[in-house]
Amino acid sequence: MTADTLPLNKSGKILEILPSPLKINLMELGFLPGKKITLQHLAPSGGPMAFQMEETLLALRKSEAALIRVEQI
Amino acid sequence: MAETTLSPKTHTSRIALVGNPNVGKSTIFNYLTGLNQKIGNYPGVTVDKKTGSAQINGETFEILDLPGTYSLFPNSEDEIIAHRVLNHTKLEAKPDHVLMIVDSSQLSRGLFLASQLIDLGVNLAVILNMADLAQKNNLEIKAYELFKALGVPILSTDARNQKGLEEVKNLISQRNFHRAPGFIDIQQVVPVDMLEQVKSKFELENLYQAYQMIRFGTRDKAVSPDDRTWLEALAQKSEFDLEEAQLEETKIRYKKITEIVTKALTKKTEPKPKSSLDRIFLHPIWGYVIFISILLLIFQTIFTWASYPMDLIDGLFADISGWISSALPDGPLTRLLAEGVIPGIGGVVIFIPQIALLFGFLAILEDTGYMSRVVFLMDRWMRPFGLHGKSIVPLVSGVACAIPGVMAARNISNWKEKMITILITPLMSCSARLPVYIILIGLTVPDEVVLGFVNLQALALLGLYLLGIIGVFGTAFLLKLILKTSEKSFLLSELPPYRIPRWSDVGITMFEKSKTFVMEAGKVILAISIVLWVLASYGPPSRMEQIRQEGLARLENVSDETQIAEIEAETNSHLLENSFIGIMGRAIEPAIKPLGYDWKIGIALITSFAAREVFVSTMATIYSIGGDLEDELTIREKLDQQINANTGEKTFNTATAFSLMVFYAFAMQCMSTLAVVKRETKGWKWPLIQTIYMSVLAYLGALITYQILS
Lengths: 73, 710
Fold this sequence. Notes:
The complex is a heterodimer. By secondary structure, chain A is mainly beta.
């Protein structure tokens, strides 16, 4: 599954970042295989999603979260 | 091992501040430089060059504040600048030392950039800032472990609470920066012979610089076209996937950083739970309710607070003008000073209260961490119009004044989204349109209550604001289809923890933004107001002289004060009608006749190009209303009596008044905004395009309105 399909308040472990021009942006922010992310907030009507990763809360668009392959934990 | 740079320098040492966004870099910059800051330009980009000078132990240092970046991979203009300054690209002088600021609670992300700086071979020192946050998160950093792993001096500070800042000064004054040995071996990801070729061709210091050059030099306009072709050819010849190498580099770097962080960082608790403030502020319903309430509160405050200093400035400049015309001998020079230059400067200064207050509030929202929540909430609703969540800030500012709005658009990194935002922000109904609306609504809309509670005049005003908003989103949608960019739009932003704002930083922001506006836009505004004054004061000499003589002749046999004032007002009105602007007004009459305007309104349209509110005073002059201009009722009564020579009807009937209001809602009649757009887009192309499209929109809107209503 990808991070955009994580249910609210659930966590996932990152498996890989799918190829895209944004891959490097995601990786430099720290989205790396093995990290744990938790979906904490959802903007209404398919808006951005906010994930807690370690000490940071990060906002991503749904299409950007879809680039992060995770397994739910 | 590490080489200390204590060599005596004859020139002023340049120190660059580098760091991720939101790490307190500007607080440290403000602490070091105070108000000794300068904003300049980097060639070819819209990013501002922020420099300042710091006095430490009697010695002067030049401090360069680089835009916040996550890496040296130049994805945005901000990152291109960091890349360009830190690599030796000849366009920008390389700093002698680099002070990197890291958020203690985001250690790995900060170390990622730090490790790239180490590999570039810069003289580096690292500040672990926000020690308070790390403490709150129960993180303990062993600075010595970091020093051992990185090989550069490490300092811990809490800039927000003024802790450890003296040590930063000491570090700078002792030049305690080290050039550490490389962090990763770039040969692991790129063939060494290719790098060696680049290194010798560009006379670079090490292989990582060579890697940066071949990876990004082909896209950097600071590299000469010949060199770019050479680099492209080399990359093609070696058939090497540089993009893959960059991803590989990122992985290797983070792997090594994770090892270091495991040793240097002790975590005492589990990751943070959801913040209780975010439960409300990011709530799908309450989040928006709170956002709108905060907006209303801010506008209420701006309108109330700004009006006092604005009235004061208005009065002060009127007094100066009056004093000059009475104290100096009458002549063209005195009149230029009293009627052109002084009001021109006044027209610049009058915007300062609004700009300063708006930027004060924006700084508070930004500093508390709330602004990024607004971006999170609004992104979904902005995107269908080719805008970014960040566009909400300029648009909201535009309700008070488009100038700070346009200036705030620079935070949008995507070129297309930024341009659309800048182009449409002036369509929001700003406070300068209010006087025009109020006079025209008062003239034509009855002050009646319908349906029990709806005041018709208020309804008309609301309608004009809505018209502006419709204009904004309609135009944005069209521009989205027209403008092209290869850049990918992304959100990817941090929602920083909520904090109390740093008041001194808020103050410095207000001061710096106002200063930038006065210095940069002021020149253009002053020039245009002088041109407009000349056009309005001079006409064909013989005709102007004749009118003056007639006026004097009429005055000869009159002694009654009111009559004198009346005759003088009429003479002034004749003079304006026959001035160059008057001639222009007549010349455009055929074009504006379909909108329901006569040539007198044409004159007001031309003069109010300087600023919309000038409409009111021009109307007063044209219709020879002497005495107190402040008295709105006098103007209204006079206007109500005017008969259109073409139609024989009242000049300001409902159709004409509404057509005028629609025209003012859309037209780009604010040279201050134009000057700021020129500054932000670094050229006249976009302000010109903006003026043209807004004029067309205004013309068509007014035409349709008049044709329907008449």
